[in-house]
Amino acid sequence: MKYVLIVVNLLFLMAGCTQQGSDNTEASIAVVEQYLESVDNNDYDLMESLLADDYLGLGPSLDDSTNKEMALASWKWNTENLYEEVLYERTKTLATTVEEGPQAGDWAYNWAYVTIKYKDGSGPVNLMVNAIYKIENGQIIRSRTFYNEADIYEQLGYRVFPPLKVPESE
Length: 170
What we know:
It is a single chain. By secondary structure, the protein is an alpha+beta fold. The chain has one domain: Nuclear Transport Factor 2, Chain: A, CATH 3.10.450. It has helices at 2-16, 23-40, 44-50, 68-81, 149-155; strands spanning 51-58, 65-67, 83-98, 105-118, 125-136, 139-146. The protein has a six-stranded mixed beta sheet. A hairpin with a 6-residue loop joins strand 3 (83-98) and strand 4 (105-118).
């Protein structure tokens, strides 16, 4: 919950201090757009070059986290074994620079409509993905990604039921 509150506060802060057209914001937007293209094209070399060595990715669940090595391995495995295609469509990326405080730095946030097609013929699934990226030295050093995992499972035909309540014995 703490991370969600931090991200929501960061979004409001970023919305209030966006500096359209500055060199840093344009560069941050370019990094994010290149990263999304690398995902679309399964370009692992470009993906690797855009993630900082100490990259930390969070989400979509509160306790999900990944580093650079894990993120690259996950994309490779998913595209070799699971995904036929991942298409980032109708994306919009905005950027800002936070001048001071614990979140100081260059940030970009992206909203995307994503379609995932699976190798086994299931799906496709369509989802809205929101991601926030911290950019340093032309690389992504942090990211926080949000999307509705339950919606994906529902589109794939899974059904979710509430847990069974077993009465306590006396």
